Structure formats: structure tokens, C-alpha cells
Amino acid sequence: MVTTKSAVSAQLVYSGNANIVVQLPDADYLVRCCVRFDSIDKNNKYTLENIEYIKDQVRPLLGGCLVSLEPEFLKTDDLLLILRNFVPNCDTDEVIALKMEDLTRDTDETIKVDHFTKIHSTKDHHTIVWEFKPKWLCSSGSDPSLCRNCTHNKLKKRDIPYCYAMAIKDPAKVVSRCFSGQNVPERFLRDLRVYLGSEGSILVKLAAVQKRLALEAPQLNRLTSESDVTADLALLMALRDVSCFIRWEANGAISAKIVDVDLKPNSKWRHWATEQSKVDAHCEPVHH
Ligand SMILES: O=P(O)(O)O[C@@H]1[C@@H](OP(=O)(O)O)[C@H](OP(=O)(O)O)[C@H](O)[C@H](OP(=O)(O)O)[C@H]1OP(=O)(O)O
Ligand SMILES: Nc1ncnc2c1ncn2[C@@H]1O[C@H](COP(=O)(O)OP(=O)(O)OP(=O)(O)O)[C@@H](O)[C@H]1O
Question: Which of 24, 35, 245, 287 is found 20 to 30 A from 200 (Cα to Cα)?
């Protein structure tokens, strides 16, 4: 059900490229506001479209792995101090946001490991939340061993000695490289290796969906206009840009959720084609 709530002193918790995440006073959840477009009205329209998209297209594929998302109608005035830093045109008095579970609740510290990875934990390390963007979990080009993640990292001059596509084949290697030098319990590392190696892991499920969609979607280097972007391709690109949160408790419990499954605008086709051509032409492609 949609409710109207006031946000007297909302706090900005995170900002991404296309969204901000806000803590409302006294709320035990977070809200996510789209800031991709230059006016609140445009962002609201996109959010309404996105809600339907997630319900109809994404949730059927990811089911319980996907964080719960509900619309939340807020007063622009209550978010203005934050929103005006991200959206130039505050042209309407209502902001349509998405209400979601706070997946890092109760944690006290966050370490940024690299561009794709953060570790959130309580001081006693009894709760650890591993947040990462797995990106492309399987190749879709003619060379199945070419790793888009690692090659793209080279292209962007990111020196990261592992990627999440590797975690499908060799979870132990990724766990040891990602957490090398981090102060985390051995039991956590052991549980994580077992979890990632299981058929039910969030990465295995996401990889399977990406692989299926990649079989149907057109190749990025063949795109010539927005109209070449099929529904499967837009969905595939959304699923290649999600974040995963794996939450571990000292009693061994593990829960995992996916966030950020937003509808990608078809107008991004040129960016996708350009990145693909740069990866294809890279002088040091990475295979694994
Ligand atoms: O193209 P890529 O692989 O560089 O991905 C972009 C991301 O770059 P990164 O993964 O960090 O290297 C990029 O992330 P950053 O802003 O670099 O953190 C965005 O997620 C972008 O999507 P959107 O425009 O916000 O919807 C992402 O664009 P999409 O390709 O997912 O549309
Ligand atoms: N449910 C959640 N619980 C806790 N933190 C969250 C949650 N959702 C998002 N975040 C945090 O907010 C950040 C930005 O969120 P999100 O990924 O939705 O924005 P984005 O603009 O799409 O980011 P990007 O451009 O990196 O794809 C995330 O990296 C994460 O740290």
C-alpha cells in the first residue's frame, strides 16, 4: 500500500550514479530516489515505470534474491536540502521513492576494498556484510574465455587481482584475494567459501539468468540505434550492473540480496557499443 510520510530531517546515506539512498527520521528502512534525470518530475515518471518493470520483468527471474521494493511518496520540501544537490529542477512537490530494507543495518564500520567491493561490519565482527558489484558473470562474445570484467578493469586502469566471474569457478581464490589483509574471522571465510561453492549461491543464480538472456540478446558491437535494443538486452544490461549484499552472522547464518535492478534507458546503447568495442580492441585481453 502507498503511504504519505514526512521526512523532517532526512539524511543522505549513499549516492550512486543514478540514485541516492536516504534515511528518513525514525525509519528502520531506507529510501532510494532516482536522480538520473534533470527534474523531479522526470525522475518520478521513470520511478513509476521502473516499479512496474521490476515487478513484471525482474522479480520473476530473481524471486527472493531481490531486495523488497515498495513505492514511497514523500514531500519534496522534506528532501529539498539533499535533492537540490543532485537534481537541478525541483519542479514538483512530491517525490516518488522506493522503500527498501537496510541491508547494512546495525553495522558500525565500512571498508572500501576496491571500486566494486565494500565490507561493512560490527566492531566485534559478529556481523559482516560483503557488498559487491559482480558485473558480467559470463562472456557473450565469440570467445567464451575472455573476461569482460578483468579486461574492462585494465581499460579503466583498475588494478584489481580478482573478479566475480572468477568466483563462479574458483570461489576460494576470490575469497582469499578479496579479504587478504582484512581483519575478519576465519569462520567467516570458511562459511563464505562453502556458500559461494553451493548451487544456491546468489552468484550462481545471477550467472544462470545472465547466461540465458545473453543467448537471446543481440551482440553489443552490432547495435546501431536505440531500436536495436531488445527487452532481453535491456534486462541483461540491468543484471550486469546490480549490487549483491551477502550478510553473515557469527552463528553461521548467511542471507543474500540483490539491489539496483533498474531499467536501463535504451539511449545507453551507444555507451554499451563503445565499451564493447574498447574491450574487443584491448591489447591485453584477460582470459580465465
Ligand atoms: O558500462 P560499464 O560496465 O562501465 O558500467 C557502468 C558503471 O561503470 P563501472 O561498472 O563502475 O565500471 C557505472 O558505475 P560507476 O558510476 O562507475 O560507479 C554505472 O553503474 C553505469 O550505469 P548507470 O549509468 O548508472 O545506469 C554502468 O553502465 P551500464 O553499462 O551498466 O549501463
Ligand atoms: N538496500 C540497501 N541497503 C544498504 N545500502 C544500500 C542499499 N541499496 C543501496 N545501498 C547503497 O547505496 C549505494 C548506491 O545505490 P545504488 O547502487 O542503488 O545506486 P546507483 O546510482 O545505481 O549506483 P551505481 O551507479 O554504482 O550503479 C550502493 O552502492 C550501496 O552502497
Answer: 287
| Grid cell at residue 119 | 565490507
Ligand nearest to the CA of 97: 2
Say how many Å lie between the CA of residue 28 and the centre of ligand 1.
Answer: 29
Is residue 17 in contact with ligand 2, taking CB distance under 6 Å?
Answer: yes
CATH architecture for segment(s) 4-101: 2-Layer Sandwich (3.30)
Domain boundaries, the chain: 4-101, 109-281
**Does the Cβ of 102 fall within 6 Å of ligand 2?**
yes
pLDDT tens, residue by residue, 233-243: 999 999 999 99
260 CA distance to ligand 2 middle (Å)? 7
- Return the pLDDT at 142: 73
ipTM at complex level? 0.95
Q: Confirm or reject: Cβ of 237 under 6 Å from ligand 1.
A: yes
For residue 141, what pLDDT is reported? 73
And the C-alpha cell for 211? 547466461
What 79-82 contacts at long range (C-beta under 8 Å, 24+ apart), as own/partner pairs, is: 79/7, 79/10, 79/22, 79/33, 81/10, 82/10, 82/12, 82/20, 82/22
CB 10 within 8 A of CB 82: yes
**Is ligand 1 within 6 A of the CB of residue 114?**
no
Mean pLDDT of the chain: 94
Distance CA 125, CA 29 (A): 22
Query: Would the pLDDT of 3 be above 50?
Result: no
